[in-house]
Amino acid sequence: MTSATTESPDPVMTDIGAAVTLAHTGDTTAARTRLQDLWDRIGPAGDPLHRCTLAHYMADLYDDPAQAIVWDVRALDAAAALTDERVQRHHGTLRIAGFYPSLHLNLADNFRRLGSFAAARDHITAAQQHQDALADDGYGTLIRRAISEVSEAINQRSTDKRASAPGPDAN
Fold this sequence. Notes:
By secondary structure, the chain is an all-alpha fold.
C-alpha cells in the first residue's frame, strides 16, 4: 500500500494517518490505541478502504507475528471487498491490485516468523504473482526487495525478524 495525498477529504483516513504519524515518532502504544478506537468505530462491516488501511498499519505495530497476522488477515479480507472506484475516490492514482503484493508479503513474513513455512510460501507466491501491479518507483522497489528477502528467508527456513521489516522496532 502506498502513502497518498487525499483528493477527497476523508476524516477517517486523516485519523488513520495521524495515528501512523504517532507510530513513526515512536509512540506505538498511542498509535495502537488510536487505531483500535477507530477500528471499534468503523466496525468489521465498515468501509473496506478504512478497514484495509487501518488493519494494514495496525499489523506493523506488533512485534509478535501472531498478533500481526490477525490484522494482516483483516487487511486482506477488506481488500477483497474493495474496488478501484472506491480507492480512486481517496486518490485517483490508486488501484486495488497494487495493494496485494504488500498484503501478501506481510502475511508471508509473519507466517515465516512463526515457522509456518507452507503458509508463508503460499503468500509469498501470491505476492510475487501480484508484484507487476507495483509502480516502478521507490515504493515498488521497496516491496519487490522485501518480497525477495522474505522468499529467501523462507527458503532458508529462517524465523528471524528481518532488519528491514516494519514494526515497533523500526522506529
